[in-house]
Amino acid sequence: MSAPPQYLKLACPPLTREEKQRVSEELTAAMARAHADVARPERRRACVVHFCAFERDDLAIGGVLLSDLHRGYYLLEVSSVAPDQESKALLARELTGALARALDLGTSSLAQIHVVLRAVTADDVAVGGRLVSSLEPAPAPAPVTHPRLRRAPGAA
Predict the structure, then answer these.
(1) What's domain 6-135's architecture?
(2) Is-contact 80 120, C-beta < 8 A?
(3) What's the rounded Cα separation, in Å, for the pair 28 and 88?
(4) Between 37 and which of 32, 74, 125, 146 could a Cys-Cys bridge form, CB atoms 3.0 to 4.6 Å apart?
(5) What is the reported pLDDT for 32?
(6) What pLDDT shows up at residue 1?
(7) Nearest Cα to Cα of residue 4 among 83, 86, 92
(8) pLDDT under 70 in the chain at which residues?
(9) DSSP state at residue 136
């Protein structure tokens, strides 16, 4: 049985392309660490980060527009396998730290990061119209063509 893909949706003020690249790298690495998949590149490629930008006048907290609060707000919705509270707590810490690092947010800004975890199983996700639980285990991964994901010759 195959594992379901990991889906992360980040709602936040607009980011530059470079910021999105840093955020996606940090969040993907955090997901791998939290799920002990660091050595499995095929799992890293199954991690999808979806950016949903909003203008600061499009969001209000406590009835006050974000533009008037002079602060940030980052909502990270995660659909992933996280079977128990300890795993969810680890995942929330890893993702919060990763996002803070990628956006150079200080520890005083961590409360601006909200993480919503949705635990899913291979029976909750379909790919190509078939439940992931019914799919055969993935074959050996194809060579990676993205230059940032290439390994050095002879690297494990």
Answers:
(1) 2-Layer Sandwich (3.30)
(2) yes
(3) 16
(4) 32
(5) 85
(6) 42
(7) 83
(8) 1-4, 37-44, 82-83, 136-156
(9) P
Q: What are phi and psi of 137, to 5 degrees?
A: -55, 145
- The torsion angle over the Cα atoms of residues 42, 46, 47 and 52, rounded to 10 degrees, is 150
Residue 90, φ and ψ in degrees, nearest 5: -60, -45
> 3-state class of 80 per DSSP?
strand
Residue 18: HSE in the Cβ half-sphere, 13 Å Cα cutoff: 1
Contact criterion met (CB below 8 Å) for 31 and 24: no
Tell me how far apart the alpha carbons of residues 133 and 5 are, in angstroms, rounded to a whole number.
12
Q: At residue 113, what are phi and psi to the nearest 5 degrees?
A: -100, 120
Phi and psi, residue 22, nearest 5°: -60, -45
> Strands 74-80, 6-12: parallel, antiparallel or unpaired by DSSP?
antiparallel
Contact 117, 78 (CB under 8 A): yes
Q: Report H helices in 6-63.
A: 17-34, 41-45
Looking at residue 135, what DSSP letter applies? Answer: S
What is the DSSP secondary structure assignment for residue 102, as one 8-state letter? H
- Owner of token pair 């660490």: 33
pLDDT at residue number 44: 65
